[in-house]
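Hi V.,

You were right to ask for the full record rather than a summary. Here it is.
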Amino acid sequence: MHELFDGCLHKHGIVEKIASVGRGRNNRALTDGLCGYLMVSADEEGYVDFFLGTESERNLRILRIIAFTFNVEIYSEKEPQFFVCDTDEEVDGMFNELARLS
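Predicted structure:
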């Protein structure tokens, strides 16, 4: 996660937002200084687990900049790839199987 906060996003206007709630070693926040604001959560090894924010155009812009800068793909929970699936049908099957097992 430290790469997100080393200044490489500054040229795009993305900086750390010091937040009093939820901030800790594994939780930090990014902002575009306007209305874009994303919480970033990482695991104990420092790998980003998830971004949390509203589905606003400003936040989507921040995510696009991160994806471009780090050459990664970022998926929403509304996309099958989020669940490591290729199709919505696979996601449905996965959840149906989980429901059957529980």
